[in-house]
Design a protein that fits this description.
The chain is an alpha+beta fold and 489 residues long. Helices cover 38% and strands 21% of the residues. The N terminus is likely disordered. Keywords: Membrane, Signal, Transmembrane, Transmembrane helix.
Length: 489
């Protein structure tokens, strides 16, 4: 039961930790506001309108962008949010494209945050007495000061009139000189209004990296009323550019909540009680850890002070490496010794007396009864064939008398060969019979030369086959000779 209560206390404390961190976090909360934003693709609906926005003048919405003014003279176009913005602090990021074929362009494009939604007018497509903030991207140098294209920040309280001939210098609070026309990528402006500080960054569109923003202006003590309207407008004069808006992204900025008394929903006494229980649990855990160390000293990790330093570790690694190399060399030395012993034994065995080698002859080198019968049958067949060949030659009586001596010589040769084969057969049979006799010891082979090993049955087979080949060759020679004689006569 006590363990269950302890687990419940730990769970409660773990739940309090993230809650306290969230309340003390110093980062502001950022939230996307889709009703005050637009971005392609599918920027417009089926009716050709922008959801939550209204447009007018020469503005032409499409699926990917909004063309505020085409490259035609004396055109004005605008888009405004239908709903006011309910948050006090905000951040917008606008991507625009200003393109034209001439070296100079006109007039420019502006971003607005005003108390009321604007209508078409002379100040870049809006009324020239607005109340709120205006960010102007002015392309044409009306005041002949040589400072255009220029991005400027202007504030108006609704009573001052924007002087177009002076490029609104009376209302200008800051800005930067940037050529935003004919960039390879859309030019992006990031405007942040947070705790009465207005900051403007510009991305000149020379790269596709989203972080390549440059600081253009930072203004403090700017008072903008809550619940304003966002808008975009553009205008052309004697010179004309295409003014396109690719996207308009809005986020609300909420400051972090300050820690308030009783925010956790627990009284001070309950908090103290939980803290005390947590400390007691920590002490109990530490006591159990010490008891475990005492009961299992071999499993206790050594303290940090007993660990080796970098120098000791390097020395240990070098020592271990040398030991490994020494062990490897010792193993190789032992293997070389074993090979040397085997080579010496083999050399002694080869150079020993031939009589000692006779004991090495294995049982596999003797012939069995089946091999002897096969050899005798082969010899009998050869003898019969030789008799047939001799009879055939003796019956050839049509040969000339001058060849009679040759035929008689052939018969004499055949008789000699037959006698030799019969003698050889008798010798083989005698030796095979002696090897197959039981109870008698095998005798050693005659020492070399000419035969360094025992005479086996293969030797006699080779001898008989060679004699037969010689005899057949001689008979073929005599047949050819006889045929030539018949043809001649």
């Amino acid at each position: 039961m006590a363990s269950v209560e302890l687990l419940h206390i730990i769970t409660t404390l773990m739940c309090l930790v993230p809650f306290s961190l969230s309340t003390e976090a110093g980062e502001r909360h950022v939230k996307f506001q889709y009703k005050h934003s637009f971005k392609g693709p599918h920027l417009v609906n089926k009716e050709g309108n922008i959801p939550f926005w209204t447009h007018g003048g020469s503005a032409i919405p499409s699926d990917d962008q909004i063309r505020l003014t085409p490259s035609m003279t004396n055109k004005k176009g605008y888009v405004w949010t239908k709903n006011s913005f309910p948050h006090e602090w905000w951040e917008i990021e606008v991507a625009i494209k200003v393109t034209g074929i001439g070296r100079l362009g006109g007039d420019g494009v502006a971003m607005w945050y005003t108390e009321t939604a604007g209508i078409e007018g002379p100040a870049f497509g809006n009324v020239n007495t607005w109340k709120g903030l205006g960010i102007f991207c002015d392309s044409f140098d009306n005041d002949q000061q040589g400072n255009n294209p220029f991005i400027s920040v202007m504030m108006n309280d609704g009573t001052k009139i924007y002087d177009h001939n002076k490029d609104g210098q009376d209302l200008q609070l800051g800005g930067c000189l940037r050529d935003f026309r004919n960039r390879p990528n859309p030019v992006r402006l990031k405007i942040r209004y947070y705790e009465k500080v207005l900051t403007l960054w510009v991305h000149m569109g020379m790269s596709t990296k989203p972080e390549d923003f440059e600081l253009c202006a930072r203004l403090e003590n700017i008072n903008l009323a809550k619940g304003g309207y966002f808008g975009l407008s553009a205008a052309t004069g004697g010179l004309a550019d295409d003014h396109d808006v690719v996207s308009f992204i809005t986020h609300s900025l909420t400051p972090p909540k300050k820690e308030r008394e009783g925010e956790t929903g627990m009284s001070e006494e309950e908090q103290k009680k939980l803290t005390q229980q947590y400390e007691e649990y920590q002490k109990k855990l530490e006591q159990q850890r010490e008891e475990y160390k005492t009961a299992h000293p071999d499993r206790v990790k050594a303290p940090e002070t007993q660990y080796e330093n970098v120098y000791e570790r390097d020395v240990r690694l070098v020592y271990e490496g040398q030991n490994a190399i020494h062990q490897m060399i010792s193993n190789l030395h032992n293997k070389v010794g074993e090979l040397t012993t085997q080579i010496n034994t083999l050399y002694s065995f080869v150079t020993s007396d031939h009589n000692k080698l006779s004991h090495v002859v294995t049982q596999d080198q003797t012939i069995n009864r089946q091999e002897v019968n096969t050899l005798i049958n082969m010899q009998n067949q050869l003898t019969a064939k030789l008799h047939e060949i001799s009879n055939s030659i003796n019956q050839g009586g049509n040969i000339e008398r001058r060849d009679v001596g040759d035929a008689a010589g052939v018969n004499s040769k055949l008789s000699d060969v037959q006698t030799a084969i019969e003698s050889l057969t008798h010798s083989v049979n005698h030796m095979s019979t002696q090897q197959l006799m039981g109870g008698q010891e095998k005798k050693d082979c005659p020492p070399p030369p000419p035969m360094p090993q025992c005479i086996g049955p293969g030797y006699f087979v080779v001898l008989i086959v060679s004699q037969v080949i010689m005899l057949v060759g001689y008979i073929a020679y005599q047949n050819q000779k006889e045929a030539a004689a018949k043809k001649f006569f």
